[in-house]
């Protein structure tokens, strides 16, 4: 059984700690008896004291369970009283054992209340037991609450990432179906049929990918080529593509479909509106031990005073939010004017896949 299993089983954890604590008491008392050269009969008293403490303190657990839910004004005096009463009973066992095994000849000379001598010191010990019980219980409660918060945070993060990823599908699908409709209206049925086939391949890829898992850059580029294959049917020679990919980073891990929304934005604003079309450049390389991905176009850029993502560029805004959720402050996405066009740079931690994905 592992420590995690022990911690999750609260009943087993209590008895393990309870046994360990009273075993430690037994060992220290036994060593003390040897150190002070107590008679052999005194060892019996030590064992009786440890056994009595073990048995009498165990029921306190059930009382303290009830007290845990009460107000502090009830807990404190109740714990003090319970520790004193338990200590009183414990001293009866200890002192009776001592009189029976060590000084049996003095039993008749001792007053009846002598059997309770030492109750105060025993109360201190049981208060320590109580303090440890409440301390461990408080720690376990904090840990449980922290784990619940972390689980809730992880679920919320997963839901947010999935929402951001799946938001891309209807957005992209609308644009593609609109393009296919245009091809059909223009009498390009064969080209439209090819577009439908490639759209099917791309959607199959998106459905097969878990939004929470990362893929290699090579895998991501293959998916991007599926998408660009659809767009090339739409734009023909008007779309010119350039790739500058460092082969050393093709095994780097990236979120699935991280480039597609940026490319889609570039096609929508830099290529589609211009009769002559435009050029799209995709770059990937290692910079200062980090992965840098670039999507650059040669379009008109942004009008003065307009920021990308502020009502324009849904894909950019979506990607920025998604990367912030996945990487926090370890990521950076920058918009640079390349004259002409825009240059979008994504910088991520360089994580290399240990095996092909």
Characterization of this structure:
With 357 residues, the protein is α+β, with helices and mostly antiparallel strands. It has 2 domains: 115 residues, no CATH class; 196 residues, Heat Shock Protein 90 (2-Layer Sandwich). The protein is built from 10 helices and 7 strands. The strands form 2 sheets. The protein has a 5-stranded mixed β-sheet, with helices on one face. A hairpin with a 4-residue loop joins strand 6 and strand 7. The two termini are 34 Å apart. The mean pLDDT is 83.
Which strand-content bin applies to the residues? 5-15%
Order of helices and strands: HHHHHHHEHEEHEEHEE
Total number of β-strand segments?
7
Q: What is the 3D shape?
A: rod-shaped
Distance between the termini: 34 Å
How many distinct folded domains?
A: 2
Reading off the top of the CATH hierarchy, the class of the largest domain is best stated as Alpha Beta
- Helix- and strand-based class? alpha+beta
Unreliable segments (pLDDT under 50, ≥5 consecutive)? none
Q: What CATH architecture of the largest domain would you give?
A: 2-Layer Sandwich
The CATH superfamily of the largest domain is identified as Histidine kinase-like ATPase, C-terminal domain
Name the strands of the widest sheet in spatial order. Answer: 2-4-5-7-6
Radius of gyration: 37 Å
Describe the sheet with the most strands.
5 strands, mixed
Helix content: 55-70%
Number of helices: 10
And the CATH topology of the largest domain?
Answer: Heat Shock Protein 90
* Average residue pLDDT: 83
